[in-house]
Design brief:
2 helices, seven-stranded mixed sheet, mainly beta
């Protein structure tokens, strides 16, 4: 899995792992933790689940322009579907629970992967 820099509104926030192949997207954070990176980008992806997860996460839904269109904080394990009901979400970023609030991420923020 590739690891790059996560930039939000022009500020470098940390590292982000890229799950852009079928098996990487399918696995997501299952069996992983955030010890080697700060966030996980799943692309393309419009919704996720937290079945079989061991801990809560924050979820950002991103459109094709890499703008945050939805934020779900502290999503508990065993939730069957998190995402958008429309076709605007192009990718999802998973973060450790509490990180979206700590980083003060808001709907409309711009995400850049470098």
């Amino acid at each position: 899995m590739k690891i790059k820099k996560l930039v939000i509104n022009g500020l470098e926030m940390g590292s982000i792992a890229i799950a852009d192949r079928f098996l990487l997207r399918l696995r997501g954070m299952l069996g992983r933790d955030f010890d080697q990176f700060d966030a996980l980008l799943i692309e393309p992806c419009s919704e996720i689940h937290t079945l079989f997860m061991a801990y809560p996460i924050d979820v950002l839904c991103i459109d094709k322009m890499r703008q945050v269109i939805m934020i779900e904080e502290n999503v508990e394990p065993w939730i069957p579907c998190i995402g958008t009901e429309d076709s605007y979400a192009y990718s999802v970023i998973e973060l450790p629970a509490g990180k979206a609030g700590e980083w003060e991420i808001r709907v409309g923020d711009h995400i850049s992967i470098q």
